[in-house]
Amino acid sequence: MKISIHSIVSSAGGEQPTQQNEQELATKTLYIQHKRFYLDVKQNHRGRFIKVAEVGSAGRKSRLLLSMAASREFRDHLTTFSELYASLGKIVMVK
């Protein structure tokens, strides 16, 4: 799997207002296989959150919003799952 990472950190204190009174604090673009993923850390009146947007090769877009607390818990579950997957060993596809 090929992963490319491009980072952009906002200037001027890291805050850029958006349409819904959101401030963009940091953003990353990941290119994984034939998809683009945008990872944004934003802030609004309810607090900080992470927005993940996936854009497929056909242009279809999916979004996921997580509070910072939920993102930490999600990361922990992904780490556990990744460790379990790694312990399974190499998978051989049979045709």
UniProtKB/TrEMBL annotation:
GO molecular function: DNA-binding transcription factor activity, RNA polymerase II-specific; purine-rich negative regulatory element binding; RNA polymerase II transcription regulatory region sequence-specific DNA binding
GO cellular component, one term: nucleus
Pfam families: PurA
InterPro entries: PUR-bd_fam
SMART domains registered for this protein in UniProt: PUR (SM00712)
Keywords associated with the record: DNA-binding
Chain intervals for the UniProt region annotation (Disordered): 1-22
Gene3D superfamilies for the chain: 3.30.2450.30
Family according to the record: Belongs to the PUR DNA-binding protein family.
PANTHER family per record: PUR-TRANSCRIPTIONAL ACTIVATOR, PURINE-RICH BINDING PROTEIN-ALPHA, ISOFORM B
Protein name as it appears in the record: Transcriptional activator protein Pur-beta
The organism's taxonomic lineage, starting at the top: Eukaryota, Metazoa, Ecdysozoa, Arthropoda, Chelicerata
